[in-house]
Amino acid sequence: MIELYYWPTPNGHKITIFLEEAGLDYQIMPVNIGAGDQFKPDFLKISPNNRMPAIIDRNPVDGGESIAVFESGAILQYLAEKTGKFIPSDVRGRKTVNEWLFWQVGGLGPMAGQNHHFTQYAPEKIPYAIYRYVKETNRLYGVMNRRLEEYEYLAGDYSIADMACYPWIVPYERQQQNMADFPHLKRWFESIASREAVIRAYQKGEALMTTPTVTEESKKILFGQTSTKDR
Q1: Which residues are in the GST C-terminal domain (predicted)?
Q2: Which CATH number is 2-85+198-222 given?
Q3: For the chain, where are the alpha helices, taking DSSP H only?
């Protein structure tokens, strides 16, 4: 059994996609980030960065005590290694998957996240910030498009790299991107969107989203954090 500490954000969707694709038994433990659940002491024991997703594996492969993992990229790697699925066994293939996984963690996610913040949530519209992150998102889409012109998936075969990137492309319209400009990315995006496991993963998230996560009150929690937990 995997306990998944989760809220339906792009980083959260990465993990439900893997769990559905791999057919693992899991239980969602909702972490409503708009309500501040990520600051609860029990959750911080699992995820000291007060960010979801995180998991607890109650049945690790070594047969020992439960293992907690935080950070979405680390979780994907852990689960892929646990199951032997969606990551190659050979050193070169694994290297390529990890390159694209870390590309998402270090590039696509943070840059698209800043795009979301300044175009949608910032209290004032800052033209330079919007220009900077919309353009950088566009550049990153271009990187993917060129890669996918040559390969069906980012690392050749469908892998955790694709699972990591896909949820960050889902809100492409809100990121002010025109998918028609990226035909190879569009082909990849539509292929993943039609996968039954991906559809099930997003349905799990929709069941939790009974109210908006980002409201004027929740912005104080989401965007006002400091080292002293002021928010």
Answers
A1: 90-213
A2: 3.40.30.10
A3: 10-22, 41-46, 72-83, 91-103, 109-116, 127-150, 160-169, 183-193, 196-208, 216-222
